């Protein structure tokens, strides 16, 4: 009968041999899930034997991870900006770059209490996180997505954090009414031809949330012309983009009449965020970044 430590070591080797990054960490998470404890608690139980009842489902999880199924799908949760959210195949797995986007969004100067729109919300992590951070400074949060499945996951995550946002199934702004002080969006931006370049893990995300035409810009080209009608004077729009799309996306923002347009880098130095402001703000208010 294998001990917890022996199970972790053998499972990590299995994953490493199949090209899984962070194999040891992945295996620790899977064992912790099976034992219903935290990763830290594992270290106090290394010598405990694991029963066959525990090992059988663990073998299935290990095989699925070795085939590239995202760890977050297997665990059923993901940590995002210090909070735990549900995570499955209905929406994108939230990534560290999106956490960086939110950090910058919360530095923006806009009217408060704010009406906030999370466009293409997916799992809802952006809108829920921003609403929780703003607290009383957020008068309404709208989570919009074309996918009914994604909205179902967003609803579950909102309920998990005791929020009651407006959930709206909409193809971009088709069903959206009124104006917002802040619009945040993580729209699809992968070019159709780049499908084969994606990691095994990313290939488990919904196509609808990933691909945006031959150049990966189709969603932005539809999004920006509609934003001015839904952004309050002085309001901000903030987006995550592909690392090679900065010039095209900022040009779209300029064409649509936005001001204070900024291109921001992620922690790896890649230009991944675009911020743009509607006219009507105080000229003395500084731009982000």
Can you offer a commentary on this structure?
The protein has 289 residues and is of the alpha/beta class. The chain folds into two domains: 64 residues; 187 residues, Vaccinia Virus protein VP39 (Rossmann fold, 3-Layer(aba) Sandwich). Helix content is 37%, strand content 19%. Helix 1 packs across helix 2 and helix 2 runs antiparallel to helix 4. The radius of gyration is 21 Å and the shape is elongated. The mean pLDDT is 94.
Fold blueprint:
Layout: H1 4-17, H2 23-35, H3 39-42, H4 52-66, H5 71-75, E1 77-80, E2 83-86, H6 96-105, E3 114-119, H7 125-134, E4 138-145, H8 148-160, E5 166-169, E6 180-185, H9 207-210, H10 218-226, E7 231-240, H11 246-255, E8 259-265, E9 271-277
Parallel strand pairs: 3-4, 3-6, 4-5, 6-7
Antiparallel strand pairs: 1-2, 7-9, 8-9
Helix pairs in contact: 1-2, 2-4
